[in-house]
Amino acid sequence: MRLHRPLRLAAAAALGVGALAFSAPSATALVPSESSGACLAGDAHDDAAAARGGGHAHDHREISALEQERIRDDVAGRLAAQGTSRREASAAAASVPVYVHVMRDASGNGDVTDAQIAEQIDVMNVSFAGGKSAEAADTGFSFYLAGTDRYSNTAWHQDQQSESYRAQTRQGGANALNIWLVDFDYLGIATFPWDYSSDPDIDGIRVQYSSLPGGSATNYNLGETATHEAGHWFGLYHTFQGGCTSTNDEVSDTPAQSGSTSGCPAGRDSCSLPGLDPIHNFMDYSYDSCYTMFTEGQSSRASQMWSAYRG
């Protein structure tokens, strides 16, 4: 299962319980040749492409009610098997190792700098710690750079044969966040934690390289695309999941909204249920400059999912 944050560039500019600690090894820099990462014949592009060049073409996949129920039951079963209560699981926190895979093309396009990668990790740490708003939750999760790989392969840069290149390059276990920086038709795509057991080799997030801090993605170049996709990796849905329903995204303190946000429309209220649309929430589709928070409910859900699947 994957969730997508669509690429919405301006037309002129053409997407366990308790604290766990890990020591950070030094970063690596691997540079395979173009031929060493060649596309495998018969591999298909694993995501339909949205038209590039402006507009708001969404590729959002709703999680069905049946699938949500299955996930709830699975989480409950896993926590029970661990002897962990939901209250205990809700307090889980961790320091997450991050492996960044820079997928540049044969001409070097997409080769972000080490400084941008370091700033990206800083952005995620501030956002997950609640550092952008007085109302924001401190999720208890932090990130450190465990390694950086650089590949020169045009097909990989264009996100072709994604399942193949992720399986060849992914590092770490269930607790490790792998970020592949590519050039594709979305701002980002993520896997969910409950899919790790069946597809561990492709677990992680793919992020449009131009969305890193200082990148060229207009309105989406402050690094919050990675924050959004990491939210999915922790098990959070979009805030507009389910639309104007009481269950919505299964988090009680994110008001329901009828659909995704574009820009930063203050006061937007698209549902008759209580509360304005959570346009400042990292799990909406707002501009990076509009993003300021995760809620306490989202923090608890992320911790429960961590305890069940990643801790």
From TrEMBL:
MF term (GO), any: metal ion binding
Its recorded name reads Pregnancy-associated plasma protein-A
- Organism, as annotated: Nocardioides lianchengensis
Keyword field: Disulfide bond, Hydrolase, Metal-binding, Metalloprotease, Protease, Signal, Zinc
Provide ranges: composition bias, Polar residues: 248-263
Domain Peptidase M43 pregnancy-associated plasma-A span(s) in chain numbering: 188-302
Annotated region (Disordered), positions in chain: 248-267
Which family does the UniProt entry place this protein in? Belongs to the peptidase M43B family.
Gene Ontology biological process: proteolysis
Signal peptide (from-to): 1-29
- Gene3D superfamilies per the record? Collagenase (Catalytic Domain)
